[in-house]
From TrEMBL:
Highest taxon listed in the record's lineage: Eukaryota
Gene3D superfamilies: 1.20.1280.50, Ribonuclease Inhibitor
Region described as Disordered: 80-139
InterPro entries: F-box_dom, LRR_dom_sf
Transmembrane portions of the chain: none
Lineage: Eukaryota, Fungi, Dikarya, Basidiomycota, Agaricomycotina
Domain F-box: 149-216
Name this protein carries in UniProt: F-box domain-containing protein
Length: 567
């Protein structure tokens, strides 16, 4: 057979979506020519998927070598590391291909053309032994793939670390404490990285910092699929794997206790308690907490900095008997505590290193007990209080002295009231002369008037209060000289979900337009307005220009028209 006859006999023809060749010997010749063409042209990008004529059982989404010495295979989630070895052996055996392998290679050589005209033209050039030129879009994919795989391992590690922080599960808190909290989960970033390619998997496995965050949970579906109760109580293998790969680094642990055996999980975690940096526990209700925390009574956690315990359901002031955990100085570095709908008495006070205390609709102790707790935290700087009707009765001072917190810098109060309680009695609980920032959330317009009266009378008790945050005040509020006299040293004002035009109108004038004629916040340099759909931009612009002409320029103005944020 002459070369021209061989060329004609190996011409690839497509009829009704099928590849027709003359006989097996011709297939072998065509496959060798296909391999030569593929080596001479640019690499096929990873996005090119094998055509439908290939047997699905043997198909794999792959890319040809990007460099002379480096090979990257992109796999689906079902593939393991052994797939890479099999694929490498398959490529090595192509020098003496079987008829089946030759048929697959020949098909792959022509199937990456995007249009029917390209397929016909490529068949002719393939038979002539001419290398093809990839289309521009394909060249762009190849270049992008090459750039990604030139990133050094150190840079990949930094990217992976940043991405792993974004997958932390969050709690969606409703406005009413009587509505259950929902857990908003996101897909595991690390699981995605591990299944991109063999190199990324190896970089991730050998980077201990990527394995220090453990989100331990189980879906309801996975729970129903467990064969027996014994499997429910068995240790989770992946938890052991994370602990091993994280080596000796600090651990950030999040436990969703709804569908897991908490005792079995703690049996895995407690041997590494000296590495716990943060611990977040989510329980269905307060009645489930004794079972969750019974293992922690005498466990030392010397590196623990953050503790958060959340009950998804409201407690109705009913708390089971539970001895406080981390007692006797077992958590010397604990600085951030957040309790949500659980009992404050379960926390082992005093906590000398405590700097931030976040209490959201907790089961409150009596006023003397609360005073005793906080007196042992001389470094407390941030206090967040979300209060309901039950707190008003338990925290009644009844003529007692206020709780002195000389180090407190920031205070947030949110009042959910279905009756007469107002926010002012809770302000009077504390003596906080160093307070710099005050946040008031979801107060009523009538309560706002009471707040102005309280601070106007007691403004000398807050000599350094300069930052005021108002969030979601219900109803229209009046803003006049009372607001200026209540907070005379204001430098930062943040309005979240509030009709802001009243404040902007006040900022236009140098002094209040009433009998008091007091200067309108002469020290203010920052204004933030968020969630005001009725924002009067022209009025705000007038205020900015007027402040600049007065020599009181607003150095920072932050605007966000989106829905007001919860936090």
């Amino acid at each position: 057979m002459t070369s021209s006859e061989l060329s004609m006999s190996t011409t690839l023809k497509r009829r009704h979506g099928r590849l027709n060749l003359k006989d097996e010997e011709d297939i072998l010749e065509a496959s060798n020519a296909a391999l030569r063409d593929l080596e001479s042209c640019c690499s096929v990008p990873a996005s090119v998927i094998l055509p439908s004529v290939i047997n699905v059982a043997s198909a794999r989404q792959t890319s040809l070598p990007i460099g002379h010495q480096t090979h990257h295979s992109f796999r689906s989630l079902a593939h393991s590391e052994s797939d890479d070895e099999e694929f490498g052996a398959e490529r090595a055996s192509m020098s003496t291909p079987s008829s089946e392998k030759a048929r697959r290679c020949s098909t792959f050589g022509v199937a990456s053309r995007n249009a029917q005209e390209e397929r016909d033209d490529s068949s002719s050039s393939f038979a002539r032994g001419q290398p093809r030129t990839p289309p521009p879009a394909e060249m762009e994919d190849v270049a992008t793939s090459n750039i990604i795989h030139t990133l050094p391992n150190e840079l990949l590690t930094l990217i992976f670390e940043a991405g792993s922080v974004l997958t932390y599960p969050s709690l969606v808190e409703p406005k009413s404490p009587f509505v259950p909290i929902t857990v908003k989960k996101v897909s595991s970033f690390m699981n995605t990285v591990m299944h991109v390619c063999h190199r990324w998997r190896q970089v991730a496995i050998h980077t201990p910092a990527l394995w220090t965050t453990l989100h331990i949970s189980r879906s309801r579906k996975a729970l129903d699929n467990l064969p027996s109760v014994k499997d429910f109580r068995n240790p989770m293998p992946w938890v052991t794997e994370h602990l091993m790969r994280s080596q000796c680094l600090p651990l950030d642990i999040s436990l969703d206790c709804r569908h897991i055996s908490i005792k079995s999980v703690f049996n895995q975690l407690i041997p590494e308690s000296h590495r716990w940096r943060s611990l977040v526990i989510t329980i269905p209700s307060v009645q489930d907490l004794p079972n969750a925390l019974s293992s922690l009574k005498k466990i030392p956690v010397p590196a623990l900095e953050t503790l958060e315990i959340t009950s998804l359901k409201y407690h109705d002031s009913i708390a089971p008997n539970l001895t406080s955990f981390f007692r006797g100085g077992l958590s010397p570095n604990l600085s951030h505590v957040r309790l949500n709908r659980v009992s404050l008495s379960w926390l082992a006070f005093p906590l000398k290193g405590l700097t931030t205390l976040d209490l959201r609709f907790v089961i409150w102790p009596t006023f003397p007990h609360l005073a005793e707790m906080l007196s042992g935290s001389p470094n407390l700087q941030n206090l967040i209080l979300h209060i309901d009707n039950t707190a008003a009765k338990l925290l009644d001072r009844r003529g007692r002295a206020a709780i002195n917190i000389p180090s407190l810098r920031s205070l947030e109060i949110r009042l959910f009231s279905q009756g007469s309680p107002t926010i002012c009695p809770f302000l009077q609980i504390f003596s906080i002369p160093a307070l710099e920032s005050l946040t008031l959330r979801e107060v009523t317009s009538s309560d706002w008037c009471r707040i102005l009266v309280y601070f106007r009378v007691n403004c000398t008790s807050y000599p350094v209060l300069r930052h005021l945050r108002l969030s979601c005040i219900r109803g229209l509020i009046s803003v006049d000289s009372s607001a200026v006299r209540a907070f005379p040293q204001l430098t930062h004002l943040t309005l979240n979900g509030i009709y802001s035009s009243a404040f902007c109108r006040l900022l236009v004038d140098e002094k209040t337009d009433d009998g008091y004629r007091v200067p309108v916040w002469p020290n203010m340099t920052s204004l933030s307005i968020r969630g005001d759909v009725d924002l009067n931009v022209n009025l705000l612009e007038r205020a900015i220009i007027a402040r600049r002409r007065m020599g009181r320029a607003l150095m920072n103005v932050d605007l966000d028209h989106r829905k007001p944020s919860e936090d």
